Amino acid sequence: MVIDGVDTFHHDRGAGRPVLFLHGNPDTADMWLPVVGRLEEHARRLAPDLPGFGRSKAAESFDCSLPSMASWVDGFLDAAGVREPVVLVVHDFGGPYGFAWAVKHPERVAGMVISNTVFFPDYRWHTWARVWRTPWLGELSLWGMNWPVYRSQMKKSSPRLTEEQIRHQYSFITPATKKMILKLYRATDPENFRDWTPRLLELLGNAPSRVLWADRDPYIEPHWAERFAGARITHFPECSHWLPLEEPDAVADHVKQLL
Asked: What is the pTM of this model?
């Protein structure tokens, strides 16, 4: 399906209450498959590749602003024929995509499961994000990100990920993906969240929500979990950034609670 100029790939499995899974950087919808597989017979599970990631091809003109993110998510749900409220499950950059949509359409949110993401104007980007936001330096860093470099960085930052998981993730990082990474980070200044954050927090107070936080995340510190006031917060002290891959049973159980 083509959504706002993005030829969008997605997984769509099962029937029942819709659950929308939104991944982050540099992942694809495949990251959610271990969780999706544990929700068989519980829900309709939809997981798209975000614009410019994996198999979703985005034009260079794609707008990475928050209104555009919200529009793309809304267009995806409409194209998938989803009319009823959804349970929104987000990780990393799937957070800004999903939160922007949720703020625009609070009546369509049945609940949220939030993992290692931010939506706060006082957040300061981690080191790699600051590199990617810097012209020329960002291009140079991604140009040099070959398989040995990528594998070494992932093993260091996320030791619980398997070799197969890391290799599968890397297999989708194309030159087009690298361009989208730079574009996405350069368009997303945390200050952009300022007018949106209060509306998200209001929504968290009205829709049942869970925050599942991997405390060994080298990119977003554990204290950011507490900022999602109104949600029930669970910490995972031994997990790194990729909680859905490291603890799919736990993530699936929390989604089931909202169903």
From this structure: 0.97
